[in-house]
Amino acid sequence: EVQLVESGGGLIQPGGCLRLSCAASGFTFNNYVMTWVRQAPGKGLEWVSTITGSGDASYADSVKGRFTFSRDNSKSTLYLQMNSLRAEDTAIYYCVREGSYNFDSWGQGTLLTVSS
Amino acid sequence: QSALTQPRSVSGSPGQSVTISCTGTSSDVGGYNYVSWYQQHPGKAPKLMIYGVNRRPSGVPDRFSGSKSGNTASLTISGLQAEDDGDYYCCSYAGTYTYWVFGGGTKLTVL
Questions:
Q1: What confidence score (pLDDT) does residue B2 get?
Q2: Which of B100, B101, B102, B107 to mutate to test the interface with A (most CBs of A within 10 A)?
Q3: Is residue A70 within 8 Å of A87, Cβ to Cβ?
Q4: Which residue on chain A is closest to B3 by alpha carbon?
Q5: Average model confidence (pLDDT) across chain A
Q6: Residues 74..93 of B with a Cβ closer than 8 Å to A: which?
Q7: What is the pLDDT of residue B98?
Q8: Separation CA B64–CA B19 (nearest Å)
């Protein structure tokens, strides 16, 4: 069974930094493209970043230059380093496995709140 | 404003059919057959319901179907059931720069 477990969310002040993690199990991790999708409170879904199995990452314009997506295939773990955080980054962050041009498995999400 | 346009809400009675539209552009919905749909219940993670415009993952009832015409994709749910109540999001691949775009979501109410 595919499992994706996010951790690391919390309350952080504007301008601060935080690292989210996602532990994956139940599938051959390095074979899969992985993605972060976020959802602001009461709002819709927003693509944040995608990383290939070899570690090449792409970012939404809203986070480019502030977020860094990486993976450790030996630990089946993803990391999202978030710097220069803003109030508008407040959201639930979901770790997602990509199937064939779709998001076939989602974690339960971790909540990031950016507020003073 | 979301990249893809969905109606804010739709409703139907049990047993009826509803259709949710998702309008994009030739750079996303119209340009690729990579439209997917997600169901989300309150406090839960989204769940994949349709991918590749009209393909159903295993375990998704055949009451759910998808289609596309030009820049607009649609999700149809036939024989509505109470458990179909929730939010539905469309998503499309949009190329190697934008990657993925989502719709703003549609709240389905089963009356």
A1: 62
A2: B100
A3: no
A4: A46
A5: 97
A6: 89, 91, 93
A7: 82
A8: 10
Nearest CA distance, A114 vs chain B (angstrom)? 20
Nearest-CB residue to B102 (from A44, A99, A102): A44
Distance between CA atoms of residues A77 and A5, nearest Å: 9
User: Which residue(s) pair with B7 in the sheet?
Assistant: none
Candidates B58, B55, B104, B95; CA nearest to B75 is B55
Give me the pLDDT at residue B36, please: 98
CB contact under 8 A, B101 and A47: yes
Q: Measured between alpha carbons, how far is A27 from A32 in angstroms, rounded to an integer?
A: 9
Predicted local distance difference test score (pLDDT) of residue B34? 97
Question: Which residues have a Cβ under 8 Å from the Cβ of B32 and sit 6 or more positions away?
Answer: A101, B92, B93, B94, B95
Among A100, A53, A61, A60, which Cα is nearest to A78's? A53
- The pLDDT confidence band at residue A100, using thresholds 50, 70 and 90, is confident
Which residue from B2, B48, B57 is facing A44, i.e. has the nearest CB? B2
